[in-house]
Amino acid sequence: MATIPIRVPNLAASRTTARSRIRKRLPAAFALLPTALVVLVVYIGCMLWTVRLSFTSSTLLPKLDWVGLAQYSRLFANDRFLTSVENIAIFGVLFISGCLILGFLLAVFIDQNVRGEGVFRTVFLYPYAMSFVVTGVAWQWFLNPGLGLQKLVRDLGFPNFTFDWIVNQDMAIYTIVIAGLWHGAGLTMAILLAGLRGVDEDLWKAAKVDGIPTWRVYVSIVLPLLRPMVITATVLLTTGVVKLYDLVVAMTLGGPGIATEVPAKFVMDHLFERNNIALGTATATIMLIAVVSVLAPWVYARYVRPQGRHA
Questions:
Q1: Which pLDDT score is estimated for 62?
Q2: Could you tell me the residue range of the domain that residue 280 belongs to?
Q3: What are the b/e assignments for 228-243, b being 16+ CB within 10 Å?
Q4: At what angle do helices 79-110 and 117-129 cross, to 10 degrees?
Q5: ABC transmembrane type-1 domain: from which residue to which, for each copy (predicted)?
Q6: Residue 7, in any domain of the structure
Q7: Is 284 found in the same domain as 159?
Q8: Which of 79, 96, 115, 275 could be disulfide-bonded to 60 (CB atoms 3.0-4.6 Å)?
Q9: Contact present, 273 and 80 (Cβ < 8 Å)
Q10: d(CA 45, CA 283)
Q11: Confidence at residue 121, expressed as pLDDT on a 0 to 100 scale
Q12: Shortest CA distance to 59 belongs to which of 268, 278, 284, 285?
């Protein structure tokens, strides 16, 4: 009867290999240690400190008393804050959907191997390279009824032309959306264009053989393949919506009245102008919860769930 050889693991060799791996990783670990400390102390520490202050009665200077949810009750009874939430919801829906649609259309256009593709790519992506402050100042001038588009059209011989959205309380928030679309559509275009360039040519050949219309191919075949890129673009755009501040300040200063007030401006005003630290940090905590609620599902779908499948 044949015997099956049994291999005895070499414990000494495995221990030596483990020690060598640890020695190789130690320099990298020491190099990353300062960054890890900065993340823990500055970022996480400041977030926890902000949350803690939101449960106090701090005004000009921080206090360590405890008032429970009193600041949150005041916050959700504040008309200015509720207006800012309504404005950020309008901006977010129109901005994200508009950037995804416009960015996809621009990506499809460039993907047709048009002449001067590099020029078009640069032109469409260039606004994203500019800061929101520069974007806001440029659009504030362009939409100013006495200086920009309205005056230009009237000087061309159309004296009854009116485009005064930026000074109209009912329409001012939509001027912020227009400027945001001009700024953010290029980023979406770049992300989706990278996905389009990865679509297999055989899919297009098969669709042509079957006589499927081009628009149907994009809607039913290409878009599902671009789902990871669409999710990534949506997450980036959503975080930009939550922290919207400089574009509003550069264009309207939150006006006319509070027509374009947003939560980030509400926070800054209460922290540095109204000397109400507790109410400002309560608003910042609400914004933090909004960001985490967006990022957590994305992180889970992107990193946690794939590891669970492999396990």
A1: 87
A2: 262-302
A3: ebbebbbbebbebbbe
A4: 170
A5: 85-300
A6: no
A7: no
A8: 275
A9: no
A10: 18
A11: 86
A12: 278
Contact between 136 and 247 under an 8 Å Cβ cutoff? The reply is: yes
Q: What is the mean pLDDT of the chain?
A: 86
Q: How many domains does the chain have?
A: 2
> Could you count the other beta carbons within 10 Å of the beta carbon of residue 96?
20
Q: Is 166 exposed, middle or buried (0-12, 13-18, 19+ CB in 10 A)?
A: buried
- Identify whether the C-beta of residue 107 lies closer than 8 Å to the C-beta of residue 196: yes
Rounded Cα distance between 63 and 80, Å, is: 25
Report the SS3 class of residue 149.
helix
Question: Model confidence over 199-257: pLDDT tens digits?
Answer: 888 888 888 888 888 888 888 888 888 988 998 899 889 888 988 999 999 999 898 98
Indicate whether 202 belongs to any domain. Answer: yes
Are residues 134 and 272 located together in one domain of the fold?
A: no
CA–CA distance, 151 with 164 (Å, rounded to integer): 10
Please write the tens of the pLDDT for every residue from 66-84.
Answer: 999 999 999 999 999 999 9
User: Average pLDDT for residues 257-270, to the nearest whole number?
Assistant: 92
pTM over 0.85: no
Lookup: tokens for 252: 């309207």
290 in the same domain as 191? no
Name the DSSP class of 165: G
Residues 124 and 272 placed together within one structural domain of the fold: no
Largest CA distance in the chain: 107
- DSSP H or E segment with residue 118: helix 117-129
Consecutive H or E run containing 104? helix 79-110
Structure tokens at 239: 């975080």
Give me the sign of the Cα torsion angle 291, 99, 93, 280. Answer: positive
